[in-house]
């Protein structure tokens, strides 16, 4: 379903409003593509890329990176996966369209408030993306159905990778 005109916008001071899609990016695990090594991130991009500067345009990616216990918040602006030498994009799971007119800085500020539980060695980027999605639902920026379908798609993609051998 397409958004209503003049709704669901991601604003940047230098750019006109554009409807914005939310997706979960899943990258191949490093050093080996095991389930727990698959990297996940939240992506916010224009619904109509022709309204932006090039194919990636104003794609904003928000995620946490680092080894267990030392995760840190990171933002990539104007991200283009075709030019990312650091990771192999496995899947882009479409979640939905934001229900709130917002700016990049508001998105970043909101998601910067998602707790990074470095005291929990099991906490990783996948856990953080789930918490970020639930916060977007809590704020009514996404529907419950969009969040659940997005998380299901993320989990399905993660499960496509091999399980790490025991021992």
Description:
The protein has helices spanning 104-112, 125-138, 144-159, and strands spanning 10-11, 20-27, 39-46, 60-65, 72-77, 89-97, 102-103. The protein has 167 residues and is an alpha+beta fold. It has one domain (10-159). The model is unreliable at 1-11 (pLDDT under 50).
Largest sheet: 5 strands, antiparallel
Number of helices: 3
Kindly report the spatial arrangement of strands forming the biggest sheet: 5-4-3-2-6
| Mean pLDDT over all positions | 85
Number of strands: 7
Structural class: alpha+beta
Tally of separate domains: 1
Instruction: List the helices and strands in order.
Output: EEEEEEEHHH
Radius of gyration: 16 Å
User: Spans with pLDDT under 50 lasting ≥5 residues?
Assistant: 1-11
Helix content: 10-25%
CA-based shape: globular
What is the distance, rounded to the nearest whole angstrom, between the alpha carbons of the first and last residues? 48 Å
Q: How much beta, percentage-wise?
A: 15-25%
Q: What attributes characterize this protein structure?
A:
single chain; 167 residues; alpha+beta; five-stranded antiparallel β-sheet; two-stranded parallel sheet; 3 helices; 23% helix; 25% strand; globular; disordered N terminus
Quick synopsis:
The chain is of the alpha+beta class and 167 residues long.
Secondary structure layout plus pairing:
Layout: E1 10-11, E2 20-27, E3 39-46, E4 60-65, E5 72-77, E6 89-97, E7 102-103, H1 104-112, H2 125-138, H3 144-159
